[in-house]
Design brief:
The chain is mainly alpha-helical. The protein contains 5 helices and no strands. It has one domain: lambda repressor-like DNA-binding domains (434 Repressor (Amino-terminal Domain), Orthogonal Bundle).
Length: 72
Amino acid sequence: MVNIDKLRGKIVEKRCTVETLAEKMDIDRSTLYRRINGGGLDFTIGEVNKIVESLGLTNEEAIQIFFAQPVA
């Protein structure tokens, strides 16, 4: 499960926008918005790799964002 709040936080922290990130990933911004807002399919492995590369995330940050386990 993707930790959307952490992803959004990293986008802001890296002084990026969803539009800019979508351009770097070579996908339509509406597709990225849907992925982030849960209105579409989950991120593919390729998309995750592009996000990690585009935002310069560390392995730990990527794990916290894309492989977070919900805590009850």
